[in-house]
Design goal:
The protein is mainly β. The chain folds into two domains: 7-68 and 121-145, Chitinase A, domain 3 (Roll), CATH 3.10.50; 73-116, Beta Barrel (Thrombin, subunit H). It is 8% helix and 36% strand. It is built from two helices and nine strands. The protein has helices at 43-49, 140-145; strands spanning 7-16, 22-25, 32-35, 57-62, 76-80, 94-96, 102-108, 112-116, 126-137. The strands form two sheets. Strands 1, 2, 3, 4 and 9 form a five-stranded antiparallel β-sheet that branches. Strands 5-8-7-6 form a four-stranded antiparallel β-sheet, with no helix packed on it. The chain is elongated.
């Protein structure tokens, strides 16, 4: 069975940046299960997985345009320090903004906090080593909900 729209696939992956640094990996834990064609992965990953089968081992290189996009300066801004109450704000902390967007603190000043709404991997070429562990038909529930249930998904 091959990975196509509406199939559930389980993969092991290691993500590296262009310098070869490991950014994320499923090795040593459960594989990542996802519903193919439901926009659960970045576009470049789904394109690279299309048509693959259990046992395939390969590399996928993803450009920013097919990954987390290009950095957008409009997503960087300053927030009054008092908006965080008495919290001990540190660079690198992440918060969910009122609109649901996740922002990362990039600078803490006496009166303002600079936050960045760009994904931390924006502007980066991504390099994945992938192994397909399983491919199966999605259940009717998974298709209607747009994500995996059961093994590798939520119950």
């Amino acid at each position: 069975m091959n990975i196509t729209k509406d199939k559930v696939a389980a993969i092991h992956y290691t993500l590296r940046d262009s310098q070869g640094n490991v950014l994320d990996s499923s090795q040593g834990s459960d594989p990542l299960y996802y519903l193919h064609g439901a926009n659960n992965l970045i576009p470049g990953m789904e394109e690279g997985l299309e048509g693959r089968a259990k046992g395939d081992v390969f590399k996928i290189d993803v450009t920013p345009e097919k990954g987390y996009g290009r950095r957008d300066a409009r997503l960087v801004g300053e927030v009054p320090r008092n908006a965080f109450g008495q919290a001990d704000i540190q660079v690198g902390m992440q918060f969910q903004a009122n609109d649901g967007q996740v922002v990362t603190v990039t600078n803490v000043g006496p009166d303002t906090v600079t936050v960045d709404g760009n994904h931390p991997l924006a502007d980066q070429d991504l390099h994945f080593d992938v192994e397909v562990i399983e491919v199966r038909d999605a259940s009717a529930d998974e298709l209607s909900h747009g994500h995996v249930h059961g093994p590798g998904g939520h119950h």
